[in-house]
Amino acid sequence: MRTVEVSAPGGTRWDVRVVWEPRWRVMARRFGGWRAKRRKDVGPGDVVSGGAEVSSEVGSSGGNFNDEFVIIAIVFFAFVLAAVLFWWVLLPLLLIVLDALIILILLAASVVTRVLFRRPWIVRATSSTGDTTEAEVVGWRAALRRRDAMAEALRHGLG
Fold first, then answer.
1. β strands within 8-147, DSSP E
2. What is the mean pLDDT of residues 104-132?
3. Which residues contact residue 155 at a Cβ distance below 8 angstroms, ignoring those fewer than 6 apart?
4. Which of 20, 42, 65, 69 is at 20 to 30 A from 152, Cα to Cα?
5. Helices (H) and strands (E) in the chain, counts
6. 126 secondary structure, DSSP code
7. What is the Cα 21 distance to its own chain's centre?
8. What is the mean pLDDT of residues 14-24?
9. What per-residue confidence (pLDDT) applies to 50?
10. What is the dihedral of CA 127, 133, 139, 140, to 10 degrees?
């Protein structure tokens, strides 16, 4: 939502915007818990350092390997490579797409719910000194008009 910045005649700067907050403040903070844990992740070098080491001794024991063993080794390597590719690339991409779809569905449902139940939009003006003024307005266009009217009133010192 676009914020309108206004300077009052006394020099105080006001930010006027239409706010859409959930009814429960807990919902607004639902994503804050994982950020502190994320900083403790291992670095990229830590993950690579535990990898498998390839020996230079393979194939130098006289050449007694038959074709079945080589084919089994290639199939096993391809299976492990496919599993790693799925686990580290495809699964995270699928989860990102699934998360995006869930967010879009919830957003659409919440907008429809807000419109059907005529829940008011909050028009909030916050000054640089910390003062806050709010007004509840039903309807998106009416909230935008109220935001502009509130900004004009603050600009002329009437707020």
1. 13-19, 121-127, 132-137
2. 89
3. 6, 7, 8
4. 20
5. 6, 4
6. E
7. 17
8. 78
9. 46
10. 0
